[in-house]
Amino acid sequence: MKFKRINKVCEGKYITRYNIDYETEIGSQKTYEMISRSNDLDTFEKLHETRPDAVIMIIHNETGDKLLLNREFRMAVGEWVYNFPAGLIDEGENERDAAKRELYEETGLTLESVSEVWKESYSAIGFSNEKGVVIVGTASGSIRPSDSDMEEIAAAWYTKQDVRKLLENSRFAARTQAYCALWSKNKEEECELDH
Q1: Largest pairwise CA distance in the chain
Q2: CA–CA distance, 188 with 119 (Å, rounded to integer)
Q3: How, if at all, do strands 86-88 and 79-83 pair?
Q4: Is 42 helix (H, G, I), strand (E, B) or coil?
Q5: Which of 4, 10, 121, 180 has the most CB atoms around it within 10 Å of its CB?
Q6: How does pLDDT run across 63-108, given as a tens digit for each residue?
Q7: In terms of DSSP bridges, do strands 131-140 and 54-60 run parallel, antiparallel, or are they unpaired?
């Protein structure tokens, strides 16, 4: 595909809609609709060289036997979904500071340690250039409701057995579901797969 141009269609408070024109290898013209957190995309470079928009937190308790998940009402789908704590990175904020702030705002927990910071990845490549950075770490403290009256979030710690039950009957964000499926495998299943 050869990039031709990008045109702003509609600018909202948090998301801007664009049309991107491409030319295929055989010369056909294709217009692709997408959304972005950025409201000033006008070149190919700006399309993919933006700073990360969000942090996603994979948080375990200090003994590593529980995983923190948010059960949250997501307005775009109109239902409760299991997801990792996550949030937008504020202007001038780095990923670790954003993770610390967002974790506290959504759950009341304190980020104790960060063991990994993953390379940024795309959140929804089918329709957006939004990028997030995954922070893996541990947290402590007491869970409390989100401090925002605009979010409905119920955070809790889950064991591997708890997570396996949730995976059978509950809706998840895709990245959260994938990690939970791998994390929740018990030792017997892992041994069976090795043989």
Answers
A1: 59
A2: 32
A3: unpaired
A4: coil
A5: 180
A6: 999 999 999 999 989 999 999 999 999 999 999 999 999 999 999 9
A7: parallel
